[in-house]
Amino acid sequence: MEEKKMEAAAGATEVARPRARRTPSAEGRDERRPARTAGSGTRSRNATKLDLQKDLRDFASARPAGWNHEDWLVFLESLKERGHNINDRDAIGLALERERLDLALSRVKGIGPQRRRALIERYGNVWSLRTADPDEVAKVAGIKRELAERVLAELG
To answer: Under 8 Å CB-to-CB from 31, ≥6 apart: which residues?
Structure first.
């Protein structure tokens, strides 16, 4: 009797997992995939995140010189209408600044994806990179000082 109580208690602490269902693959084999759980929407978080990133990139690329407060407010309202959560405006603003920096760095010849990521990770926005020391930029990106100077010059 005591043994059954212990087993029941142990089973109660386990996390309930959705049951997997079999689905036929294109080759006729059965594959397992998790069943939909209650409350799971048709759009995944990843898809929503990609949609937001695309919206950020579109907004930033349409305004390479920057934007004003009114543009920002209109953009936030358009994000809200498209179903994005705009409660954390600071996070959206930081992500937008990172997109702007990524776009600016993508126009500099000699700066590839890894170097762009390193610079974006370190500086986060155009202004911070623009005011950085060329030697520090060269060190962060793993580039020669001449290329770092050119990066800073192209950022204006």
So the answer is: 22, 23, 24, 25
State how many domains the chain has: 1
Q: What is the CATH number of the domain that holds 67?
A: 1.10.150.20
Distance, CA of 150 to CA of 140 (rounded, Å): 15
Q: At what angle do helices 113-123 and 89-106 cross, to 10 degrees?
A: 140
C-alpha span between 149 and 138 (Å, rounded)? 8
Q: What is the pLDDT of residues 104-156, one digit of tens each?
A: 999 999 999 999 999 999 999 999 999 999 999 999 999 999 999 999 999 98
d(CA 141, CA 116): 8
Residue 4 lies in a domain: no
